[in-house]
Amino acid sequence: MKRTIVKFRNSAFRQFIARHEKYAALLFFIGGFIFDTLTLGRIDRTYDLVVLCLYMTLLPITIYLFNLADDGKWKNTFLERYEVYFPLGIQFFFGGLISAYVIYFSRSVSLSKTISFFIILVALLLANNFLKKRISNKYLQFGIFFFVNFTFFAFMIPVFIKLMNTYVFIASGLISLTVTLGLIFLIYRSSPSTRREISLFKTISIITIMFLTINCFYIFNMIPPVPLALDTGIVAHEIVKKNGDYHITYEKSKWYYFWRDHKITYAYTSGQPVYIFTSIFAPTDIQKKIYHRWKWYNPENETWQTYEDIGYDITGGRDEGFRGYTYKNNVKLGLWKVEVITEEELVIGVIDFEIINKSSSKGKNLVKNTF
Protein backbone atom coordinates (compact mmCIF):
# COMPACT_ATOMS: atom_id res chain seq x y z
CA MET A 1 0.00 0.00 0.00
CA LYS A 2 2.80 2.43 0.92
CA ARG A 3 4.47 1.72 -2.39
CA THR A 4 1.23 2.51 -4.22
CA ILE A 5 0.83 5.80 -2.33
CA VAL A 6 4.42 6.83 -3.05
CA LYS A 7 3.97 5.91 -6.71
CA PHE A 8 0.79 8.01 -6.89
CA ARG A 9 2.43 11.00 -5.21
CA ASN A 10 5.28 10.83 -7.69
CA SER A 11 3.02 10.28 -10.70
CA ALA A 12 3.29 12.63 -13.68
CA PHE A 13 -0.38 13.58 -13.39
CA ARG A 14 -0.12 14.65 -9.74
CA GLN A 15 3.09 16.57 -10.47
CA PHE A 16 1.37 18.29 -13.39
CA ILE A 17 -1.53 19.32 -11.13
CA ALA A 18 0.91 20.62 -8.51
CA ARG A 19 2.90 22.66 -11.05
CA HIS A 20 -0.17 24.09 -12.77
CA GLU A 21 -2.57 24.32 -9.87
CA LYS A 22 -3.49 27.86 -10.93
CA TYR A 23 -4.83 26.58 -14.25
CA ALA A 24 -6.09 23.16 -13.14
CA ALA A 25 -9.60 24.44 -12.44
CA LEU A 26 -9.80 26.05 -15.88
CA LEU A 27 -8.66 22.81 -17.53
CA PHE A 28 -11.24 20.76 -15.64
CA PHE A 29 -13.92 23.29 -16.54
CA ILE A 30 -13.03 23.25 -20.25
CA GLY A 31 -12.76 19.48 -20.17
CA GLY A 32 -16.26 19.08 -18.77
CA PHE A 33 -17.75 21.48 -21.32
CA ILE A 34 -16.01 19.92 -24.34
CA PHE A 35 -16.90 16.42 -23.18
CA ASP A 36 -20.59 17.33 -22.90
CA THR A 37 -20.65 19.20 -26.20
CA LEU A 38 -19.19 16.23 -28.08
CA THR A 39 -21.19 13.49 -26.39
CA LEU A 40 -24.61 14.81 -25.35
CA GLY A 41 -27.45 14.81 -27.87
CA ARG A 42 -31.01 13.91 -26.89
CA ILE A 43 -32.14 14.37 -23.31
CA ASP A 44 -34.07 11.07 -23.45
CA ARG A 45 -31.18 9.08 -24.89
CA THR A 46 -29.87 6.37 -22.54
CA TYR A 47 -26.30 7.67 -22.69
CA ASP A 48 -27.35 11.23 -21.80
CA LEU A 49 -29.50 9.99 -18.93
CA VAL A 50 -26.70 7.86 -17.52
CA VAL A 51 -24.10 10.65 -17.75
CA LEU A 52 -26.30 13.33 -16.17
CA CYS A 53 -27.57 11.01 -13.42
CA LEU A 54 -23.97 9.99 -12.70
CA TYR A 55 -22.91 13.64 -12.44
CA MET A 56 -25.84 14.43 -10.17
CA THR A 57 -25.02 11.45 -7.95
CA LEU A 58 -21.29 12.10 -7.66
CA LEU A 59 -21.65 15.87 -7.10
CA PRO A 60 -23.26 15.75 -3.61
CA ILE A 61 -20.91 12.92 -2.60
CA THR A 62 -17.90 15.03 -3.58
CA ILE A 63 -19.31 18.09 -1.79
CA TYR A 64 -19.75 15.99 1.35
CA LEU A 65 -16.20 14.62 1.14
CA PHE A 66 -14.76 18.09 0.51
CA ASN A 67 -16.49 19.75 3.45
CA LEU A 68 -15.51 17.05 5.92
CA ALA A 69 -11.89 17.11 4.75
CA ASP A 70 -11.40 20.38 6.70
CA ASP A 71 -12.11 18.44 9.89
CA GLY A 72 -9.45 15.83 9.14
CA LYS A 73 -12.17 13.23 8.70
CA TRP A 74 -10.24 11.41 5.98
CA LYS A 75 -6.84 11.52 7.67
CA ASN A 76 -5.11 8.13 7.57
CA THR A 77 -7.68 6.77 5.12
CA PHE A 78 -7.33 6.05 1.44
CA LEU A 79 -9.35 9.22 0.72
CA GLU A 80 -6.66 11.47 2.19
CA ARG A 81 -4.47 11.33 -0.90
CA TYR A 82 -7.41 12.38 -3.07
CA GLU A 83 -8.39 15.44 -1.04
CA VAL A 84 -6.58 17.76 -3.45
CA TYR A 85 -8.97 16.64 -6.19
CA PHE A 86 -12.22 17.23 -4.28
CA PRO A 87 -12.58 20.92 -5.30
CA LEU A 88 -11.61 20.06 -8.87
CA GLY A 89 -14.18 17.28 -8.89
CA ILE A 90 -16.88 19.65 -7.65
CA GLN A 91 -15.98 22.11 -10.38
CA PHE A 92 -15.93 19.39 -13.02
CA PHE A 93 -19.42 18.17 -12.06
CA PHE A 94 -20.77 21.72 -11.81
CA GLY A 95 -19.25 22.50 -15.22
CA GLY A 96 -20.52 19.25 -16.74
CA LEU A 97 -24.09 19.71 -15.52
CA ILE A 98 -24.35 23.43 -16.29
CA SER A 99 -22.84 22.99 -19.76
CA ALA A 100 -25.37 20.21 -20.42
CA TYR A 101 -28.16 22.57 -19.35
CA VAL A 102 -26.81 25.27 -21.68
CA ILE A 103 -26.78 22.76 -24.55
CA TYR A 104 -30.36 21.61 -23.91
CA PHE A 105 -31.78 25.04 -23.06
CA SER A 106 -30.16 26.64 -26.12
CA ARG A 107 -32.44 24.51 -28.30
CA SER A 108 -35.51 25.84 -26.53
CA VAL A 109 -34.65 29.44 -25.65
CA SER A 110 -36.14 32.23 -27.77
CA LEU A 111 -35.31 35.91 -28.08
CA SER A 112 -37.98 36.75 -25.55
CA LYS A 113 -38.23 36.88 -21.79
CA THR A 114 -37.13 33.23 -21.55
CA ILE A 115 -33.64 34.30 -22.56
CA SER A 116 -33.08 35.75 -19.08
CA PHE A 117 -32.97 32.28 -17.55
CA PHE A 118 -30.61 31.13 -20.29
CA ILE A 119 -28.31 34.09 -19.55
CA ILE A 120 -28.19 33.00 -15.91
CA LEU A 121 -27.07 29.54 -17.02
CA VAL A 122 -24.37 30.94 -19.29
CA ALA A 123 -23.18 33.29 -16.52
CA LEU A 124 -22.96 30.35 -14.11
CA LEU A 125 -21.07 28.36 -16.72
CA LEU A 126 -18.50 31.12 -17.09
CA ALA A 127 -18.38 31.89 -13.36
CA ASN A 128 -17.66 28.24 -12.66
CA ASN A 129 -14.19 28.88 -14.06
CA PHE A 130 -13.44 31.09 -11.06
CA LEU A 131 -15.25 28.98 -8.49
CA LYS A 132 -12.15 27.25 -7.18
CA LYS A 133 -11.05 30.41 -5.38
CA ARG A 134 -14.49 30.63 -3.77
CA ILE A 135 -15.24 26.94 -3.35
CA SER A 136 -14.66 27.17 0.40
CA ASN A 137 -17.54 29.66 0.61
CA LYS A 138 -20.23 27.24 1.69
CA TYR A 139 -23.11 29.65 1.05
CA LEU A 140 -22.05 29.90 -2.60
CA GLN A 141 -21.36 26.19 -2.79
CA PHE A 142 -24.78 25.16 -1.47
CA GLY A 143 -26.55 27.86 -3.50
CA ILE A 144 -25.10 26.69 -6.80
CA PHE A 145 -25.78 23.08 -5.88
CA PHE A 146 -29.46 23.88 -5.29
CA PHE A 147 -29.76 25.71 -8.64
CA VAL A 148 -28.09 22.83 -10.50
CA ASN A 149 -30.18 20.31 -8.58
CA PHE A 150 -33.48 22.11 -9.26
CA THR A 151 -32.72 22.41 -12.97
CA PHE A 152 -31.78 18.72 -13.14
CA PHE A 153 -35.08 17.51 -11.69
CA ALA A 154 -37.13 20.10 -13.61
CA PHE A 155 -36.40 18.48 -16.97
CA MET A 156 -35.37 14.97 -15.91
CA ILE A 157 -38.60 14.01 -14.12
CA PRO A 158 -40.80 14.73 -17.19
CA VAL A 159 -38.50 12.50 -19.24
CA PHE A 160 -38.97 9.59 -16.83
CA ILE A 161 -42.70 9.91 -16.11
CA LYS A 162 -43.67 11.02 -19.65
CA LEU A 163 -45.66 13.95 -18.30
CA MET A 164 -45.06 17.69 -18.31
CA ASN A 165 -47.19 20.30 -16.54
CA THR A 166 -47.19 22.82 -13.70
CA TYR A 167 -47.69 20.16 -11.01
CA VAL A 168 -44.69 18.21 -12.27
CA PHE A 169 -42.57 21.38 -12.14
CA ILE A 170 -43.66 22.12 -8.57
CA ALA A 171 -42.95 18.51 -7.55
CA SER A 172 -39.50 18.75 -9.16
CA GLY A 173 -38.75 21.86 -7.14
CA LEU A 174 -39.87 20.26 -3.88
CA ILE A 175 -37.73 17.17 -4.53
CA SER A 176 -34.66 19.30 -5.26
CA LEU A 177 -35.34 21.40 -2.16
CA THR A 178 -35.54 18.25 -0.03
CA VAL A 179 -32.32 16.83 -1.49
CA THR A 180 -30.42 20.10 -1.00
CA LEU A 181 -31.60 20.66 2.58
CA GLY A 182 -30.85 17.01 3.36
CA LEU A 183 -27.26 17.44 2.16
CA ILE A 184 -26.86 20.68 4.13
CA PHE A 185 -28.18 19.12 7.36
CA LEU A 186 -25.94 16.07 6.89
CA ILE A 187 -22.80 18.17 6.41
CA TYR A 188 -23.77 20.59 9.19
CA ARG A 189 -24.26 17.74 11.65
CA SER A 190 -21.08 15.89 10.62
CA SER A 191 -18.65 18.81 10.25
CA PRO A 192 -17.66 21.03 13.22
CA SER A 193 -15.83 23.41 10.88
CA THR A 194 -19.04 23.91 8.87
CA ARG A 195 -20.97 24.71 12.05
CA ARG A 196 -18.37 27.37 12.85
CA GLU A 197 -18.38 28.88 9.36
CA ILE A 198 -22.06 29.20 8.48
CA SER A 199 -25.40 30.03 10.02
CA LEU A 200 -27.90 27.27 9.37
CA PHE A 201 -30.75 29.80 9.36
CA LYS A 202 -28.99 32.00 6.82
CA THR A 203 -28.20 29.02 4.58
CA ILE A 204 -31.81 27.79 4.62
CA SER A 205 -33.02 31.35 3.95
CA ILE A 206 -30.78 31.63 0.86
CA ILE A 207 -32.01 28.30 -0.51
CA THR A 208 -35.65 29.22 0.20
CA ILE A 209 -35.30 32.58 -1.58
CA MET A 210 -33.76 30.81 -4.59
CA PHE A 211 -36.60 28.28 -4.59
CA LEU A 212 -39.22 31.03 -4.59
CA THR A 213 -37.34 33.03 -7.25
CA ILE A 214 -37.17 30.11 -9.68
CA ASN A 215 -40.87 29.45 -9.18
CA CYS A 216 -41.56 33.13 -9.93
CA PHE A 217 -39.58 32.73 -13.14
CA TYR A 218 -41.85 29.83 -14.03
CA ILE A 219 -45.06 31.69 -13.13
CA PHE A 220 -44.06 34.62 -15.35
CA ASN A 221 -43.09 32.28 -18.22
CA MET A 222 -39.39 33.13 -18.01
CA ILE A 223 -38.13 29.53 -18.09
CA PRO A 224 -37.88 27.68 -21.43
CA PRO A 225 -40.11 24.57 -21.36
CA VAL A 226 -37.38 21.97 -21.65
CA PRO A 227 -37.33 19.13 -22.55
CA LEU A 228 -39.46 20.60 -25.38
CA ALA A 229 -37.47 22.41 -28.09
CA LEU A 230 -38.30 24.16 -31.35
CA ASP A 231 -36.17 22.50 -34.02
CA THR A 232 -37.69 24.28 -37.04
CA GLY A 233 -39.92 27.31 -37.48
CA ILE A 234 -40.78 28.63 -40.94
CA VAL A 235 -43.26 31.11 -42.41
CA ALA A 236 -44.35 29.57 -45.73
CA HIS A 237 -46.41 30.25 -48.85
CA GLU A 238 -47.67 26.70 -49.27
CA ILE A 239 -47.63 23.47 -47.30
CA VAL A 240 -48.67 20.13 -48.76
CA LYS A 241 -48.68 16.92 -46.73
CA LYS A 242 -48.09 13.82 -48.82
CA ASN A 243 -47.13 10.28 -47.77
CA GLY A 244 -46.23 11.43 -44.28
CA ASP A 245 -43.93 14.21 -45.51
CA TYR A 246 -44.48 17.97 -45.44
CA HIS A 247 -43.60 19.71 -48.72
CA ILE A 248 -43.04 23.38 -47.90
CA THR A 249 -42.68 26.34 -50.24
CA TYR A 250 -41.14 29.43 -48.68
CA GLU A 251 -38.85 32.37 -49.36
CA LYS A 252 -35.25 31.45 -48.62
CA SER A 253 -33.21 33.84 -46.50
CA LYS A 254 -29.69 34.95 -47.40
CA TRP A 255 -26.92 32.51 -46.56
CA TYR A 256 -25.45 34.71 -43.83
CA TYR A 257 -28.70 34.47 -41.80
CA PHE A 258 -27.58 31.01 -40.70
CA TRP A 259 -29.92 30.94 -37.68
CA ARG A 260 -33.06 31.41 -39.81
CA ASP A 261 -34.19 29.39 -42.81
CA HIS A 262 -36.93 31.69 -44.12
CA LYS A 263 -36.76 35.27 -45.29
CA ILE A 264 -38.02 37.71 -42.69
CA THR A 265 -40.10 39.66 -45.24
CA TYR A 266 -43.09 37.81 -46.65
CA ALA A 267 -44.32 38.90 -50.11
CA TYR A 268 -48.08 38.71 -49.70
CA THR A 269 -50.80 38.36 -52.33
CA SER A 270 -54.32 39.34 -51.27
CA GLY A 271 -56.42 36.30 -50.36
CA GLN A 272 -53.39 34.04 -50.03
CA PRO A 273 -53.08 32.08 -46.76
CA VAL A 274 -49.97 32.54 -44.63
CA TYR A 275 -48.59 29.32 -43.14
CA ILE A 276 -46.45 28.67 -40.08
CA PHE A 277 -44.67 25.33 -39.97
CA THR A 278 -42.98 24.06 -36.80
CA SER A 279 -41.08 20.98 -35.83
CA ILE A 280 -40.94 20.49 -32.06
CA PHE A 281 -38.69 18.00 -30.34
CA ALA A 282 -40.13 16.17 -27.34
CA PRO A 283 -38.80 13.09 -25.51
CA THR A 284 -40.27 9.71 -26.39
CA ASP A 285 -43.92 9.18 -25.41
CA ILE A 286 -44.45 12.68 -24.03
CA GLN A 287 -47.78 14.03 -25.28
CA LYS A 288 -48.44 17.73 -25.11
CA LYS A 289 -50.81 20.28 -26.58
CA ILE A 290 -49.05 23.27 -28.09
CA TYR A 291 -50.37 26.47 -29.65
CA HIS A 292 -49.37 28.91 -32.36
CA ARG A 293 -50.21 32.34 -31.00
CA TRP A 294 -50.53 34.75 -33.93
CA LYS A 295 -49.70 38.36 -33.03
CA TRP A 296 -49.73 41.53 -35.13
CA TYR A 297 -47.93 44.73 -34.19
CA ASN A 298 -50.28 47.73 -34.12
CA PRO A 299 -48.20 50.80 -35.05
CA GLU A 300 -50.89 53.19 -33.81
CA ASN A 301 -50.72 52.21 -30.16
CA GLU A 302 -47.34 50.42 -30.46
CA THR A 303 -48.57 47.16 -28.94
CA TRP A 304 -48.73 43.53 -30.00
CA GLN A 305 -52.29 42.32 -30.52
CA THR A 306 -53.12 38.65 -30.22
CA TYR A 307 -55.27 37.52 -33.13
CA GLU A 308 -55.70 33.82 -32.51
CA ASP A 309 -54.35 30.79 -30.64
CA ILE A 310 -54.41 27.70 -32.86
CA GLY A 311 -53.45 24.47 -31.12
CA TYR A 312 -52.67 20.85 -31.89
CA ASP A 313 -51.32 17.85 -29.99
CA ILE A 314 -47.76 16.59 -30.35
CA THR A 315 -46.20 13.24 -29.46
CA GLY A 316 -42.49 12.96 -28.69
CA GLY A 317 -39.93 10.51 -29.97
CA ARG A 318 -39.00 11.70 -33.48
CA ASP A 319 -35.39 12.90 -33.80
CA GLU A 320 -36.33 15.81 -36.07
CA GLY A 321 -39.33 16.74 -33.94
CA PHE A 322 -43.10 16.49 -34.27
CA ARG A 323 -44.26 18.41 -37.33
CA GLY A 324 -47.34 20.55 -37.65
CA TYR A 325 -48.61 23.80 -39.09
CA THR A 326 -51.28 26.47 -38.81
CA TYR A 327 -52.37 29.19 -41.23
CA LYS A 328 -54.39 32.38 -41.47
CA ASN A 329 -56.27 34.08 -44.26
CA ASN A 330 -56.85 37.80 -44.86
CA VAL A 331 -53.94 38.97 -42.80
CA LYS A 332 -52.87 42.57 -42.35
CA LEU A 333 -49.65 44.03 -43.66
CA GLY A 334 -46.96 44.79 -41.11
CA LEU A 335 -44.94 43.07 -38.41
CA TRP A 336 -46.08 39.67 -37.19
CA LYS A 337 -44.80 37.09 -34.78
CA VAL A 338 -46.06 33.63 -33.95
CA GLU A 339 -45.26 32.39 -30.46
CA VAL A 340 -45.06 28.63 -30.11
CA ILE A 341 -46.34 28.01 -26.59
CA THR A 342 -47.52 25.25 -24.26
CA GLU A 343 -50.85 25.06 -22.43
CA GLU A 344 -49.10 26.77 -19.52
CA GLU A 345 -48.09 29.57 -21.96
CA LEU A 346 -44.40 28.74 -21.68
CA VAL A 347 -42.66 29.96 -24.84
CA ILE A 348 -40.96 27.22 -26.87
CA GLY A 349 -39.96 29.59 -29.67
CA VAL A 350 -40.92 32.71 -31.62
CA ILE A 351 -41.16 33.11 -35.42
CA ASP A 352 -40.86 36.74 -36.54
CA PHE A 353 -41.70 38.06 -40.00
CA GLU A 354 -43.01 41.13 -41.84
CA ILE A 355 -45.83 40.91 -44.38
CA ILE A 356 -45.43 43.27 -47.32
CA ASN A 357 -47.26 43.74 -50.63
CA LYS A 358 -46.11 41.43 -53.38
CA SER A 359 -45.80 44.47 -55.65
CA SER A 360 -43.29 46.07 -53.26
CA SER A 361 -41.14 42.97 -53.24
CA LYS A 362 -38.30 42.65 -55.72
CA GLY A 363 -39.30 39.08 -56.43
CA LYS A 364 -39.75 35.93 -54.48
CA ASN A 365 -36.81 33.63 -53.98
CA LEU A 366 -39.05 30.61 -53.48
CA VAL A 367 -37.63 27.23 -52.59
CA LYS A 368 -39.27 23.89 -51.86
CA ASN A 369 -38.14 21.68 -49.04
CA THR A 370 -39.37 18.43 -47.55
CA PHE A 371 -39.62 17.85 -43.83
TrEMBL record:
Keywords, comma-separated and alphabetical: Membrane, Transmembrane, Transmembrane helix
InterPro entries named among the record's database cross-references: DUF2914
Cross-referenced Pfam families: DUF2914 (PF11141)
Protein name, UniProt field: DUF2914 domain-containing protein
Spans through the membrane: 23-43, 49-70, 82-104, 110-127, 139-161, 167-188, 200-220
DUF2914 domain ranges (all copies): 288-355
